[in-house]
């Protein structure tokens, strides 16, 4: 294999046909760029999701009512007492916090907005690993009181209306006056944390149920004891709930959700990779076209080289090096663009950016593969030219 | 050294088969400066392509240094072209993107010779043809005679057994053509290089140590 002279030759040839090379590159750059962006965004999202779970802890469990129209009528509703008694009846559960949610009008100084609200118990704070920015969280003694704890978004709204220290401020929620007793620091979303924490307000569960009779306890967030096994948690919880004549509740552990999420991400990555591959095929055809033109233009040169002793294999290799080189140049540009794009996406989505070295390796490998695959046909055509016919051509 | 016996070559031109070589026989001995003269279309170029292993005869035997050529594959043929044959063409056929030095060194690339040695060997033959001071010029920056000298250097660089020159003076004016012929004569006398010249010009043929005539696909000793 004559590598160095062929590489020099290929560089010269590509440079001398600059415009054509650049046009052919665009397809490859876009193709590899999108594959890299997709694969690396995929892995960033996956890491981000896992990071959120890690931050929440892997002992989080949710017990939720399954969405099913029929069951809601027949089944007995979960009440606070039953929910609060779960840790007592299920040894694998350390602590449990039932919550209910509603969506209603929030009013402050004549400004109205619809926001979500959660009815929670005091242990909701620690189970969700939330932090108090100012004031305090809901207490046992706040039962039925019109007190609320606000999330970041509501705090921002109040700040826009000139209230920078919201604790003690009175607001209206669902036409009832409430006093803000605390503010929660913005918590990262994901994992099993209810989204309403940052978006809305939190009230004592009993207060919320007084405000909205329809707001049933549909979810319990809990933590297991000593990383109890999933099966054990599930059987204990189900046994207790069916003893209470409660059916149609689904237990989910963090472990299960992570596995499910990973499976989804894999599918997502695969799908995006496929889309990228299609653009690569289009780019590859562009490269093949350029190479065919290059072979046609250099027929005479091929004849001369053959007369000077180049074997078929030497000619094949020469053109293959050229197309692979073209694709590798495109590949590196594509990697740069893909990594850049995923940086921009993660910057705006506020994900932790990480360069996925696998995706860079993949980019180079794909570039070489495209170069070989789409270069082999033109290169074979060049190699198989009859020396005498090639030499005679103009 | 080169032995052609009863060589036939025909081409298929659509439905018609044209026989260009009709039983040509020829022997070229070591150290000869031999010419073959004939009018255009008599088949001398076809003969040279066969001798140069760029084309295969339809029938007949070609023996090169005691070896029958017919049984060889592409790899063998390429190797012989590379090591035993040096071509000089009417239109020089230098690669325009390469400098004189790179053009001359090109046959050695296919032998896997390293760049330093390639350039050393190329400089040595460029000096022989008086073109060393132009080593970094590209073909377009050289006159026809200079290009042909570079082409001769390229043919010489691999120490071939024979140089095949197809109308080497055909694209040059008489004076420059004579310089090229003088170069051939000198290389043949001083270095003992075997040279086979194809020409339609009797003035060229007469300067060679021997010549044969070709007419209508057959070679006649004169």
Show the helix and strand layout:
The complex is a heterodimer of chains A (394) and B (222).
Chain A lengths: L3 H13 L1 H39 L3 E6 L3 H6 L5 H5 L1 H4 L3 E16 L2 E10 L3 H4 L4 E4 L11 E4 L1 H9 L9 E4 L2 E9 L11 H4 L1 E4 H7 L5 E8 L5 H14 L5 E5 H44 L1 H9 L4 H38 L7 H27 L3 H6 L2
Parallel strand pairs in A: 3-8, 5-7
Antiparallel strand pairs in A: 1-9, 1-10, 2-3, 2-6, 2-9, 4-7, 5-8, 6-7
Chain B lengths: L1 E12 L2 E13 L4 E5 L6 H8 L7 E6 L2 E2 L5 H11 E4 L11 H10 L5 H14 L15 H13 L5 E5 L7 H18 L2 E6 L2 H5 L3 E6 L2 E4 L1
Which residues of chain B form runs of ≥5 with pLDDT under 50? none
Tell me, what's the shape of chain A? elongated
What share of the residues of chain A does DSSP label as strand, in percent? 15-25%
Report the total helices of chain A.
15
Helix-strand pattern of chain B: EEEHEEHEHHHEHEHEE
Kindly name the structural category of chain A: alpha+beta
Task: Tell me the quaternary state.
Answer: heterodimer
User: Count of helices of chain B?
Assistant: 7
Distance from first to last alpha carbon of chain A:
28 Å
The end-to-end distance of chain B, rounded to whole angstroms, is 21 Å
Q: Within the largest sheet of chain A, what's the order of strands?
A: 2-3-8-5-7-6
Q: What order do the helices and strands of chain A follow? A: HHEHHHEEHEEHEEHEHEHEHHHHH
Short description:
The complex is a heterodimer of chains A (394) and B (222). Chain A has helices at 4-16, 18-56, 69-74, 80-84, 86-89, 124-127, 152-160, 196-199, 205-211, 230-243, 254-297, 299-307, 312-349, 357-383, 387-392, and strands at 60-65, 93-108, 111-120, 132-135, 147-150, 170-173, 176-184, 201-204, 217-224, 249-253.
Structure, explained:
- Chain A is elongated.
- Chain A has helices spanning 4-16, 18-56, 69-74, 80-84, 86-89, 124-127, 152-160, 196-199, 205-211, 230-243, 254-297, 299-307, 312-349, 357-383, 387-392, and strands at 60-65, 93-108, 111-120, 132-135, 147-150, 170-173, 176-184, 201-204, 217-224, 249-253.
- Helix content of chain A is 58%, strand content 18%.
- Chain A is α+β, with helices and mostly antiparallel strands and 394 residues long.
- The model of chain A has no long low-confidence stretch (mean pLDDT 87).
- Chain A has two domains: 4-53 and 260-392, no CATH class; 67-247, no CATH class.
- In chain A, 42% of the residues are buried.
- In chain A, a hairpin with a 2-residue loop joins strand 6 and strand 7 (176-184).
- Chain A has a six-stranded mixed β-barrel with strand order 2-3-8-5-7-6.
- Chain B is an alpha/beta fold and 222 residues long.
- Chain B contains seven helices and ten strands.
- In chain B, the strands form two sheets. A six-stranded mixed beta sheet of chain B has the order 6-7-8-3-9-10.
- In chain B, strand 1 and strand 2 form a beta hairpin.
- In chain B, helix 3 (100-109) packs parallel to helix 5.
- The A-B interface holds A 2, 4-5, 12-13, 16, 300-301, 304-314, 387-388, 391 and B 49, 52, 54-55, 74-75, 78-79, 81-83, 87, 93, 95, 97, 106-107, 109-112, 115, 154, 158.
């Amino acid at each position: 294999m004559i590598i160095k002279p062929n590489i020099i030759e290929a560089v010269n040839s590509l440079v001398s046909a600059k415009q054509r090379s650049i046009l052919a590159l665009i397809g490859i750059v876009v193709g590899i760029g999108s594959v890299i962006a997709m694969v690396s965004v995929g892995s960033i999202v996956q890491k981000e999701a896992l990071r959120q779970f890690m931050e929440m802890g892997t002992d989080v469990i949710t017990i939720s009512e399954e969405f099913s129209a029929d069951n809601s009528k027949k089944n007995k509703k979960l009440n606070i007492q039953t929910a609060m008694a779960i840790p007592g009846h299920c040894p694998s559960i350390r602590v449990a916090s039932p919550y209910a949610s509603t969506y209603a009008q929030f009013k402050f100084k004549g400004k109205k907005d619809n926001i979500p609200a959660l009815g929670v118990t005091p242990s909701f704070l620690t189970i969700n690993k939330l932090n108090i920015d100012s004031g305090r969280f809901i207490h046992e003694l706040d039962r039925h009181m019109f007190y609320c704890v606000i999330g970041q978004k509501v705090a921002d709204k109040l700040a826009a209306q000139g209230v920078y220290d919201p604790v003690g401020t009175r607001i209206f929620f669902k036409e009832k006056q409430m006093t803000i007793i605390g503010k929660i620091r913005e918590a990262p979303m994901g994992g099993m944390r209810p989204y309403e924490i940052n978006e809305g307000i939190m009230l004592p569960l009993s207060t919320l149920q007084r405000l909205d009779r329809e707001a049933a306890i549909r979810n319990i967030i809990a933590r297991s004891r000593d990383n109890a096994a999933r099966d054990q948690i599930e059987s204990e919880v189900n046994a207790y709930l069916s003893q209470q004549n409660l059916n149609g509740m689904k237990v989910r552990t963090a472990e299960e959700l992570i596995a499910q999420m990973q499976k989804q991400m894999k599918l997502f990555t695969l799908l995006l990779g496929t889309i990228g591959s299609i653009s690569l095929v289009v780019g590859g055809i562009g490269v093949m076209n350029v190479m065919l033109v290059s072979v046609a233009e250099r027929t005479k040169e091929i004849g001369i080289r053959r007369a000077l002793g180049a074997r078929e294999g030497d000619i094949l290799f020469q053109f293959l090096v050229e197309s692979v080189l073209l694709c590798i140049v495109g590949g590196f540009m594509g990697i740069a663009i893909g990594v850049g794009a995923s940086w921009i996406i993660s910057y705006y989505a506020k994900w932790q950016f990480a360069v996925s070295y696998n995706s860079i390796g993949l980019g180079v490998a794909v570039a070489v593969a495209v170069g070989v695959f789409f270069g082999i046909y033109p290169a074979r055509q060049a190699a198989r030219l009859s020396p005498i016919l090639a030499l005679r051509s103009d | 050294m080169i032995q052609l016996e009863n060589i036939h070559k025909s081409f298929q031109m659509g439905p018609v088969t044209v026989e260009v070589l009709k039983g040509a026989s020829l022997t070229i001995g070591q150290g000869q400066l031999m010419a073959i003269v004939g009018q255009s279309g008599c088949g001398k170029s076809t003969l040279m392509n066969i001798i140069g292993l760029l084309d295969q005869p339809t029938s007949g035997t070609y023996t090169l240094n005691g070896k029958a050529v017919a049984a060889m594959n592409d790899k063998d043929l390429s190797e012989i072209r590379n090591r035993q044959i040096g071509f000089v063409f009417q239109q020089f056929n230098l690669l325009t993107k390469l400098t004189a030095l790179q053009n001359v060194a090109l046959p050695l690339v296919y032998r896997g010779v390293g760049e330093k040695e390639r350039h050393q060997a190329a400089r040595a033959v460029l000096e022989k043809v008086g073109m060393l001071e132009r080593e970094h010029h590209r073909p377009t920056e050289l006159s026809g005679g200079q290009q042909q000298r570079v082409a001769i250097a390229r043919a010489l660089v691999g120490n071939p057994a024979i140089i095949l020159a197809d109308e080497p003076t055909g694209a040059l004016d008489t004076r420059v053509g004579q310089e090229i012929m003088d170069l051939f004569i000198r290389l043949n006398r001083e270095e003992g290089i075997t040279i086979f010249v194809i020409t339609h010009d009797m003035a060229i043929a007469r300067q060679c140590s021997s010549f044969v005539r070709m007419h209508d696909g057959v070679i006649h000793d004169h």
